[in-house]
Design a protein that fits this description.
246 residues; alpha+beta; 8-stranded antiparallel beta barrel; 8 helices; globular; NIPSNAP
Length: 246
């Protein structure tokens, strides 16, 4: 019996002393806060996107009365054409439920929405959290935005988070682009990270990208993170006339 107890004590001690894996990229602290961001992507029938945006511009106040619109963009390059991307902010999931119920009862909003649904070909949405070390930045002047979507290997931020952060910081610290926000998906494709960048123009973005590719400090940081990368894609985004982020 004493031998059994001694073995059990050693096993428990080993478990207690085992190093805990943490990552500054994990979104646990954000989840405790509750605030999350809904990414909505709309695909429109050919020639119908501008019609929808004009109609939405006249009625967007009905929607923003209930929750914050972070940004609204049309997609200039990357993926399918006739595409619009929105980011909405919610205090928590109960808040989102309340908003959806309120909008369903809002006759003016429904009067806009129902006929305009016919212009939409497809919709996608994801729920994301800002990573703990990143706060949402608002550029001081108008420009263009780039959304880069990274599909990482399974294992979560404890596996790849710190290397990913070092790669991002290499671009930010050296001034190649301005970071707006880094989001980690909670509902949608798991192990997915969205990075939103701002540049003055598509040409300044291209110039910064070419320079960063030749900078050994950036190359070294990125080389480490790509070991955990499955795929990536990007979109060049143009703010709509009613987008808070210009």
């Amino acid at each position: 019996m004493l031998v059994l107890r001694s073995g059990l004590t050693r096993a428990l001690a080993a478990r207690t002393l085992a190093p805990q894996v943490h990552s500054s990229f994990a979104t646990g602290p954000r989840q405790y806060d509750g605030t999350f961001y809904e990414f909505r992507t709309y695909y429109f029938k050919p020639s119908k996107m501008n019609e929808f945006l004009e109609n939405l511009k006249k009625n967007i106040h009905l929607r923003t009365a209930h929750s914050e619109l972070v940004g609204s963009w049309s997609v200039e390059f990357g993926g399918k054409m006739n595409k619009v991307f929105h980011i909405w902010k919610y205090d928590n999931f109960a808040h989102r439920t309340e908003v959806r119920k309120a909008l369903a009862k809002n006759k003016d909003w429904q009067q806009f929405l129902i006929p305009n649904l016919a212009l939409i070909d497809e919709q996608e949405f994801e729920i994301t959290y800002l990573v703990p070390w990143c706060k949402l930045e608002k550029p001081a002047k108008e420009g263009v935005y780039e959304l880069v979507i990274f599909q990482m290997k399974p294992g979560g931020p404890a596996l790849w988070g710190d290397a990913f952060r070092r790669a991002l910081n290499a671009h930010v610290d050296l001034g190649y682009s301005k970071l707006v926000g880094v989001f980690h998906t909670e509902y949608g494709a798991l192990n997915r990270v969205h990075v939103l960048w701002w540049n003055e123009s598509a040409d300044s973005r291209a110039a910064g990208r070419h320079q960063s590719h030749e900078d050994p400090r950036v190359v070294a940081a990125v080389r480490e993170s790509v070991n955990y990368l499955v795929s990536q894609q990007n979109m060049l985004l143009l703010p709509t006339s009613f987008s808070p982020l210009k």
